Amino acid sequence: MAITTGSESQLTDADGRVDLADRSGLVGSGYANEELLPTRLSERKWTTYNYAALWMGMAHNIPSYLLASGLVALGMNWLQAFLTITVANIIVLVPMLLNSHAGTKYGIPFPVFARAFYGLRGANLPALLRAFIACGWFGIQTWIGGQAIFVIIGKLAGDSWIKAADFGGHPWTMWLSFAGFWVVQMILIWRGIDALRRFENWAAPLVSVAFLALMVWVVVKIGGFGPIFTEPSKLGWGAGFWTVFAPSLMGMIAFWATLSLNMPDFTRFGGSQRKQLLGQLYGLPTTMAFISMISIVVTSGTIVLYGQAIWDPVEVASRFTSPVAVIIGLVMAVLATVSANVAANVVSPSYDFSNAVPKLLNFRTAGLLTGVIGILIQPWRLVSDPRTYIFTWLGFYGGVLASVAGVLIGGYWVVGRTRINLRDLYRPAGQYWFSGGWNWRAVLATVVGALVGVGGAYSEPGSGPFPADGLIPLLKPFYDYSWLAGLIVGLVVYVALTLPSADRAARPTAVSATPEPAEK
């Protein structure tokens, strides 16, 4: 079946997924390469299991574990931490599924999807915002995976490895482990997206078993669940809890705020809307609930065992008495980190950087660029403290990216009613060129949404980079709800600026004699 627009056609299958009938006119475009063009209908084969396994692989990782353990370290009991994370993942699933729809329908990655609202050039704004955040996450995950390798080798090599000479605040052997882990991930991304899908399919179940084994070890060690579930909250259920709950909830949502934007990078391969939707429903909330409960049990158990909350699972595993158990546990931690890192933090910036310079960067070379930037961001500083990790890193960028999600959702669902002219996403002469390749309405909505979301960023005295009264004191109350504020404001401002002009364009008018700009 074909839908025809003017002299050009778009192929549409029975499920409503769209492809271009003829790509020949786009081959020489400065806005297309093989990775950025729509996935061909014949190549969209990902199943419900593929998406569930993808989420199992991405969510079963050490930073996911650190979310829940960090909340326990901040004073929450098991129930408070579990509810915070569960509610957050149900909330973030909504924009994630809304943006995923476009990827499946049109077979396009996130930066190309963004062109429909920001313009062919303007799409680089949200794409690069997303890309640099992913680089930071890539660095964090790689540092944590390097730590696991460091401990594994230390169990085999002894003190000569663990107590090697310091360099930059860490043993030089730690830096070597970090570098080795970086290389392994670069090799995997160089093999391409299909190799990643196969890796996730078998790695995800193994990682689940490893985390479950860690929990069993702690429960047996302390004599059952009783000491964990009776551990009182240091915050109570009054004002002390709610003061921490709101920014923590935003931080938990922000953990997947990046994926709520760029899931089209994966759903472009979907066999149907139903398959990607069910796969994500089965994969994200259940996996995050599973990993958070394991994290809560293990971290609460360390309070009983060691008198303090140890929120780093690598450190917990290193305390096993059996060297074999330590090595098996940490090998699984490495596997979990690779599984999450390459899928969640390299795929997206590979498309995003490629979108900026399609003729110079493809999926593989852009992935290498991601790895280099991930080192330059110095991730070891970001995970040194749970308060910095949750409130500063997660909370701040979550509010910024939420405004982008608001623009995409408002543009695709409210203004466009899920209709996109697929060919014009790649042509400067088309409807998405706007003014010089930029749509000022989307940019303004993003800036206003981000300003409201994070303009009042504040830190407790002596515990962060922001002033105690907030960067902009008037906006300080919004910072505790940064993600929600950014999303709502970005969406409302974009729709308010765009709908009137969209309505005028929809009215019958005389044919304009103004010539179309020449394609560049």
How would you describe this structure to a colleague?
- With 520 residues, the chain is mainly α.
- It is 65% helix and 3% strand.
- The protein contains 21 helices and five strands.
- It has helices at residues 48-59, 62-73, 78-106, 110-118, 124-157, 159-162, 172-190, 193-222, 226-229, 239-255, 257-262, 264-267, 273-306, 313-317, 323-345, 347-356, 363-376, 386-415, 440-454, 476-479, 482-506; strands spanning 2-5, 8-12, 18-20, 166-167, 170-171.
- The protein has a three-stranded antiparallel β-sheet, with no helix packed on it.
- Helix 3 (78-106) runs antiparallel to helix 13 (273-306), helix 8 (193-222) runs antiparallel to helix 15 and helix 18 (386-415) runs parallel beside helix 21 (482-506).
- The chain is globular and about 65 Å long.
- The model is unreliable at 1-7 and 508-520 (pLDDT under 50).
Features:
3% strand, disordered C terminus, globular, 520 residues
As a whole number of angstroms, the C-alpha radius of gyration is 24 Å
Query: Rough shape?
Result: globular
Counted by DSSP, the helix tally is 21
Structural class: mainly alpha
The total strand number stands at 5
Q: Give me the strand/helix succession.
A: EEEHHHHHHEEHHHHHHHHHHHHHHH
Strands of the biggest beta sheet: in what spatial order?
1-2-3
Arithmetic mean pLDDT: 81
Taken as a percent bin, the fraction of beta residues is under 5%
Helical fraction: 55-70%
Largest sheet: 3 strands, antiparallel
